[in-house]
From TrEMBL:
It comes from Conexibacter arvalis. Signal peptide: none annotated. One of its GO terms (molecular function) is ATP hydrolysis activity. This is Phosphate transport system ATP-binding protein. Residues 41-284 form the ABC transporter domain. Residues 1-33 are annotated as: Disordered. It comes from the Bacteria.
């Protein structure tokens, strides 16, 4: 829930796609995967609250299209909170709200009248724990979002989208002969790739990933990392990770968050190309964190 502001009202004039009812927005979606141009996100002076608790303060950041941006920083500095504010999942917590702006290609996702469900369709999320719908088949897990968005979608088209999403998630060959079996019967790494297939099947512009490998073994982690490298050809990706090697391997840009004193809100210290953050960061706090001196 954003606090109303003049800026929000101004942005309202240009946010038509996010205001479209979910079904309409999706009905016009092309059957084929769209061109490889994803969208950028711009956070401007973003403050994030849980009721009276100020969790994250004053974040301004550009998230570039078709790049992987990693969010790193010590526990509790607000990485996940910031991530969830980028697709309006934050406000699902009772009393939680943001102040400031988040723009998807220049359109404020918090503008008055914007449908948060449509925002979440355009900015998908993959969580730490793989969470396939437990009673649904593998096929239905991937088809679920499309069925919600496009009630009249025909079976042959759905088959095509499900196959494409599963191939895109490097899962097709492993599951093509058991599409009718429950998604919960897959291994952890397979379940996470199923969740990625589910998230990408609706062709979002941005994929948010909250520690997507932290519940996985090293082999499954490598599989997800190589998948992320491919997915950025089609999507803008933001990933929260505690694993600095993973940030160094998998991201193009890295944002370091920090809390100066206990009880203070988390703040963005710096964002730069990953190579720069891990070799010559601007801030001593970043240097201390990446060299393992704290956090
Ligand atoms: N649902 C919630 N209600 C109230 N406070 C919350 C809630 N979720 C998180 N917080 C608080 O917000 C702050 C930021 O938490 P957040 O989980 O975003 O940090 P993080 O950097 O992602 O941490 P970690 O690396 O441990 O996952 C913390 O002080 C946390 O306790």
């Amino acid at each position: 829930m954003s606090q109303p502001s003049a800026d929000v009202r101004d942005a309202n004039a240009t946010d038509a796609p996010l205001q479209a009812p979910l079904g309409d927005a999706a009905t016009s979606a092309p059957a084929e995967a769209p061109a490889n141009v994803a969208k950028s996100i711009e956070a401007r002076d973003l403050d994030i609250y849980y009721g009276g608790f100020h969790a994250v303060a004053g974040v301004s950041m550009t998230i570039r299209p078709n790049k992987v941006t990693a969010l790193i920083g010590s526990s509790g500095c607000g990485k996940s909170t910031f991530l969830r504010s980028l697709n309006r999942m934050h406000e699902l917590v009772k009393g939680a709200y943001v102040d400031g702006k988040v723009e998807l290609d220049g359109r404020d996702i918090y503008a008055a009248g914007t449908d948060p469900v449509a925002v979440r369709r355009q900015i998908g999320m993959v969580f730490q724990q793989p969470n396939p719908f437990p009673t649904m088949s593998i096929y239905d897990n991937v088809a679920a979002g499309l069925r919600l968005n496009r009630r009249k979608i025909k079976k042959p088209e759905l088959d095509e989208v499900v196959e494409r999403a599963l191939r895109g998630a490097h899962l097709w060959t492993e599951v093509k002969d058991r599409l009718d079996k429950p998604g919960s019967g897959l291994s952890g790494g397979q379940q996470q790739r199923l969740c990625i297939a589910r998230a990408t099947a609706v062709e979002p512009d941005v994929l948010l990933m909250d520690e997507p490998c932290s519940a996985l073994d090293p082999i499954a982690t490598v599989a997800i990392e190589s998948l992320i490298a491919e997915l950025k050809e089609r999507f803008t990706i933001v990933i929260v990770t505690h694993n600095m090697q993973q940030a160094a391997r998998a991201s193009d840009y890295t944002a370091f968050f920090n809390i100066e004193r206990s009880g203070d809100p988390g703040r963005l210290v710096e964002i730069d190309e990953t190579q720069t953050i891990f070799s010559t960061p601007a801030s001593p706090a970043t240097e201390a964190y990446i060299s393992g001196r704290f956090g």
